[in-house]
Amino acid sequence: MKLIRFGTPGCEKPGAIDAGGKPRDLCAVARDWSGGNLDPDTLRRLRSLDLAQFPQVEPGTRLGPCVGGVGKIVCIGLNYADHAAETGATVPAEPVIFLKAVSSLAGPNDDLHVPRDSGKLDWEVELGVVIGRLARHVPAVRSLDHVAGFCVCNDYSERAWQLEGSGTWDKGKGHDGFGPVGPWLATPDELPDPQQLSMWLDVNGERMQAGSTRTMVFGVAELLSYVSRFMTLHPGDIISTGTPPGVGMSRKPPRFLRAGDVVELEISGLGRQRQRILPPV
To answer: Is 114 a domain residue?
Structure first.
């Protein structure tokens, strides 16, 4: 299934995309795509629904983040060897983990205001993994049993705040709007192999990133198992698995986003995002 959440920010409702590509309102069967409704067994039962029998969502309705009740966003740094090379970093011997503020979550097509005092706003297309079942010290061979689904993430970053000051990366990662997810949450039956997905990102129609999850240093199953050693993963938690090469800070000369730019990105089977970059507020 392809699960969506639609409506105004903070008041999103659950829905799904039917076989014809139309969004349907599933309020009659779920309160939200969060908590127990993300359990893989529950989602398997939902696949028997005839989506054509549910009301169609009004055209033009905003899509929100495709998962609700997110407790934490766990990000993986330098997880593509070619991206590590373009930044001058050594490929890590084990996954690099950092956290992104939940308040950064946004819908897939929400506008993004340049943060005040920002000068190095950058982009990162990433595969997101949404947890559906509590995971703690999970072996890699069983870790995918804890996955509710997969989605597109754009890990926006303010590079000066991330890399040029003191402290951790978090300052450059957690600003409002820096975490668009969606348009939909694809359950695992939609993506039999998450390590065979092509991905791209454009700025103003110019291709900046093009890659594939085939080139991850650490695959999805290994990442989930590894993270679950250090923190309990709860339904709704998101693991953002890293980005391929082509980020703005590594271009020659570096290129960063400004008001008026349009960012578009897509991962095969997971849909497309589009964000307009607006002036600070």
So the answer is: yes
